[in-house]
Amino acid sequence: MSSYITRKSPGDTTWFTKDRFGMFIHWGIYALPARHEWVKTREKITEEKYDKYFEHFDPDLYDAKDWARRAKAAGMKYAVLTTKHHDGFCLFDSQYTDYKSTNTPAGRDLVKEYADAFRAEGLRVGFYYSLIDWHHPEFPIDMLHPRRDDKDAKEQSQGRDMTKYAAYMRNQVTELLSNYGQIDVLWFDFSYGDRHGEGDLDWMKGKGKDDWEAEALLKTARDLQPNIIIDNRTEIEQDLWTPEQYQPQEWIKHQESGELVTWEACQTFSGSWGYHRDEQTWKSPEMLVRMLINTVSIGGNLLMNVGPTARGYLDDRAEAALAVYENWMKYNSRSIYNCTMAEPQLLESLPPDCRFTQSEDGKRLYLHLFAYPFGHVHLNGLAGQVEYAQFLHDGSEVLYTEGEVKHFSEGAAKDEKLLVLEIPHIKPNTTVPVIELFLK
Ligand code: GLC
Question: Looking at ligand 1, which atom is closest to the CA of residue 82?
C-alpha cells in the first residue's frame, strides 16, 4: 500500500484524494470590465460606476452543460464556482440581497444551472463563497476595500455593523447548502486578520475568524451538509489547505503536528482568475500538464481555473488549455486518479527530470518523463521489483535490463540494483510521456 495517512479532519476527503483534478470557475460581473476580478478595488471604482456592469450583465451564451462537458473531457472530476466574489455580486437567487443575477439582464439563477449541469455529467459540485464583500453596506471599509482612499472613509464606516454582515453570510450559506442538492466542497475566501492600515489609517483592521463569526458559520455549513469538504480560509482549520498560485515542493505538513494534510493547489491558465481580455501570460501545454503531475506526485489535488467571458462562454484560449488536459488525460489519467506520492524507498530511484506517482494499492508505479532522455532511463534501486513495463498512452511494451546497461561501451554501468528502461529515440507524441511499471 502506498496510501499515506493524513491528518483527520471533519469532512469526508476520501473521494477528493482519489479524484485529484478539479475545475475552478471565477465568474461574475467583473467579466465585463475584463480586467481582473479585483478590478473594483484596484481601480477604486464607485458603486455607481460598477453598477454599469450589473446593468449590462447578459450572458446570452452561458451553457452550463457545455462547461460541464468540457471539464469532464479535460479529466476534471469536480468543480468549484464563485457563487459570490469579493465584489459581493451573487450568481444565485438569494432572498437576502437584490445584488444578484436574477436582477440583471441574465434574469436567472446561474448557480442552479451550474449545479444541475455538473452533477448530470457526474462531476462533484463545489461552491466558492467570498468572505470579503465590497458591496454590502454593513461591511466595514478596510485596506482592501474600493473606498479605502475616500477622505470620509472613516465616517462611511461608522455605524457599519459587522455582526449583521456575519448573519448575512450564515443566511446565504444556508441557502447555498439547502437549495442546490448535495454540495461536496465549500471554499471560503479569505481572511487577513493580521493586517491593519498604516499611519492615519490604522483604524482600518483586517478581518478574520472573529469578524466572520467563523465558528458559527462553519457550524451552519456542517449542520446542513456534514461531510462537505471546507477549506481553511476562515482562519479556522477544517479539511483543506489551499496553496494559491505557487507549486509546493513537497507534501504540505501541519504546522504544529507535522502530520501530512489534505491539500489542493489552485492555479490559473493565465495570470487572472476572472476573465481578463488582455492578459497574455498563458501557460504552455507542457507547463499545464507538469503542474498536474507535480501536484499528484507530492500527494495534492489541482484546482485549475477558468474565467468565463461576460457572455458566458469559455474563450478560445481557455478552450485550448482545457484541450491540452483532454488530450493528455484521455490516455494518461491512470497515473493521476487514485494515485499519490510514491513510497519513500521507491522515490530513491527517481531519475533526474522525472516524477513518480503510485497507485493507492501500491501495485503500479508511474514514471513521468519531463525531459525526454536519449535511449535509456536508469532506475537505480528497482531491479528485481518490476514485472512488466509499458508506455501508458498506448500500452506498448518498454523493454528493460536489470543489473547492467546493455550498450556498446567500455564504461557500461553495472549495478545489481539497476534497472534500465530502453526507450525509443523519438519522444512519443504525448505532452509528457508516462511509463507504467507493474510492481511485483
Ligand atoms: C485570492 C483572490 C481571489 C481568488 C482566490 C482564489 O484569494 O482574492 O480573487 O478568488 O485567490 O484562490
Answer: 10
What pLDDT, in 10s, does the model give residues 255-289?
999 999 999 999 999 999 999 999 999 999 999 99
Say whether both 359 and 413 belong to one domain: yes
| C-alpha cell of residue 261 | 494534510
What domain range includes position 59? 16-338
pTM over 0.85: yes
The Cα 318–Cα 307 span in angstroms is 8
Q: Report DSSP state, residue 123.
A: -
252: domain CATH number? 3.20.20.80
Domain count, the chain: 2
Give 294-314 pLDDT, tens digit per residue: 999 999 999 999 999 999 999
Q: Tell me: pLDDT of 149 over 80.
A: yes
Q: Could you tell me the CA-to-CA distances from 44 to 30, 52, 138 in Å, in that order?
A: 13, 15, 18
User: Would you say the CB of residue 264 lies under 6 angstroms from ligand 1?
Assistant: no
Ligand 1 midpoint to CA 267 (Å): 10
Q: Are residues 329 and 377 in the same domain?
A: no
Q: Candidates 82, 83, 190: which one to mutate for ligand 1, based on the most atoms within 8 Å of Cβ?
A: 190
CA distance 225 to 185: 10
Task: Evaluate whether residue 219 is within a structural domain.
Answer: yes
